[in-house]
Design goal:
The protein is α+β, with helices and mostly antiparallel strands and 459 residues long. 24% of the residues lie in helices and 22% in strands. The protein contains ten helices and 19 strands. The strands form four sheets. Strands 12-13-14-15-16-17-18-19 form an eight-stranded antiparallel β-sheet, with no helix packed on it. It has a seven-stranded antiparallel β-sheet with strand order 2-1-11-10-9-8-7, with helices on both faces. It has a two-stranded antiparallel ribbon with strand order 3-6. α2 (66-79) packs across α5. InterPro entries: Beta-lactam-related, Beta-lactam/transpept-like, Diverse_Enzym_Activities, DUF7586. Residues 18-336 form the Beta-lactamase-related domain.
């Protein structure tokens, strides 16, 4: 790990937060890290594992954070053209249990497929995977609980199906695909399906007494994609850096941006948590965090990244309950952001650009609504309302001379510059909306413009 470089007051505040969480939550041990610009800048530990404080190389079970690894593998298949997110599961997985063949890959990733939250008895997290040897065994006959696509309903069997989908399309065991496509490229040498020393043991803490009960460390078999993995702070910091910025060896940043776009219904008007494609999304005091929480008997885990702040956090504890681990991890990110706000990159002019782009920048009008287009770094355009609220988007140049919306209302829409016979831009076409240099200032506005033009009010 690199030398710590946070300010002393920041380090003390972070230590105080995890110390409070470990003591009040009565966790046998807790270990955490904060990363900035893709590198760890602080680690802390409380409690003991085998008589010593845990280190950043101590394995803990990460529970449902496993789902994000599976989602990355699915998105790699999508980016390769092996599947489409709109594909029904049964198109690629003939052995899908009854009632699940028609749900789509996207619905499974976003927990909107309507499948049961858990498997039939017995409790899958505490029993050997041999109890349910076949894929059909992970869902009961009434395993479809809601119409597909209607609402968010978290489903562990749903991600077991996605893991089976990866194995089907790759023709390899999930463990091998995971190692080849994520762990090796990211240098994650201490992440595995089964524990490898040094690792923490999982404990349940009695609710009314300071005594412990060992929890089983089972191999969950076909349910492994829902929560089987073990990892370390070191490894999850590498994974967090990847989730924040992407890695061409694993997934492009644009795909990760899509994964952290809400794909499930919001939880009320002032939402706290929602779900993207295999990523949980948390609104923490206006700061968008993405990542995942995790729990298995004896273990709690959370990883959050805040790309806008270039920050991330990881927290492990070896207790079944008692700590809001997702809140602790969010607090570590918030404390760092508030104590040491990100220093903006120094402004610098573009090294090169197409002078013709200057024809597109400046004010435009959608009817009477004022907009502005700016030329940004890497040749992207930025469309923003001017002034006040309105629709905006970042736009990426395409090979055919058009521009593709990357986010906001115009995500996926095309902007086209329309030119006259002399090559001068007359107006812009944005998904059929006409943008003009003056409010309703072009004869190309659909429906025409009143021939008398703008006028004063009645006397």
């Amino acid at each position: 790990m690199p030398e710590m470089d946070l300010l002393p007051a920041t380090r003390r505040a972070l230590l105080h937060r995890i110390a409070t969480a470990q003591a009040e939550g009565r966790a046998p041990s807790l270990v955490a890290a904060v990363l900035r610009d893709g590198s760890p800048v602080w680690t802390g530990a409380r409690g003991l594992v085998d008589g010593r404080p845990p280190t950043t190389d101590t394995q803990y079970r990460i529970g449902s954070l496993t789902k994000t690894f599976v989602a990355v593998l699915v998105m790699r298949l999508r980016d390769e053209g092996r599947l489409d997110l709109a594909d029904p599961l049964g198109t690629h997985l003939p052995a899908a249990p009854a009632g699940t063949a028609g749900v789509t890959v996207a619905q499974l990733l976003a927990h909107t497929a309507g499948l049961a939250s858990e498997t039939p008895v017995p409790w899958w997290e505490r029993t050997d995977g041999g109890v349910r040897p076949e894929l059909a065994d992970i869902l009961a006959a009434d395993g479809v609980k809601h119409p597909a696509g209607r609402l968010f309903h978290y489903s562990n069997p749903g991600f077991a199906l996605l893991g089976a989908l990866v194995e089907q399309l790759r023709g390899k065991p999930l463990e091998q695909v995971l190692a080849e496509e994520i762990l090796a490229p990211l240098g994650m040498t201490r992440t595995s399906l089964l524990p490898q020393a040094p690792h923490a043991d999982g404990w349940a803490v009695h609710p009314w007494a300071d005594v412990l009960l060992p929890e089983p460390a089972t191999d969950t078999g076909r349910m492994a994609p829902a929560g089987q993995l073990w990892s370390t702070v070191d490894d999850l910091c590498r994974f967090a850096a990847f989730l924040a910025k992407g890695d061409p060896a694993v997934l492009a940043e644009a795909t990760l941006t899509q994964m952290r776009t809400p794909a499930a219904p919001m939880d009320g008007p002032a939402w706290d948590l929602t779900y993207g494609l295999g990523l949980q999304l948390k609104n923490d005091h206006g700061r968008l965090l993405s990542g995942h929480t995790g729990s298995m008997p004896g273990f709690l885990c959370t990883l959050w990244v805040a790309p806008a702040d270039r920050l991330g956090g990881v927290v492990f504890a070896n207790t079944t309950s008692g700590i809001s681990i997702g809140g602790v991890c969010a607090d570590l990110v918030r404390i760092t952001a508030e104590h040491e706000p990100r220093i903006p990159d120094a402004w610098a002019p573009l090294a090169s650009y197409d002078p013709a782009l200057l024809d597109l920048v400046g004010p435009w009008y959608w009817g009477p609504g004022a907009l502005v287009i700016r030329l940004r770094a890497e040749g992207d355009l930025e469309l923003a309302p001017l002034p006040g609220p309105g629709r905006g988007s970042r736009l990426k140049a395409q090979a055919d001379g058009t521009w593709l919306g990357l986010d906001g209302y115009y995500a996926g829409e095309t902007l086209r510059a329309v030119r006259d016979a002399d090559g001068a831009v007359t107006h812009l076409d944005l998904g059929s909306f006409v943008l003009t240099r003056q409010p309703y200032g072009s004869d190309t506005v659909p429906g025409g413009v009143d021939p008398l033009g703008w006028r004063g009010g009645p006397a």
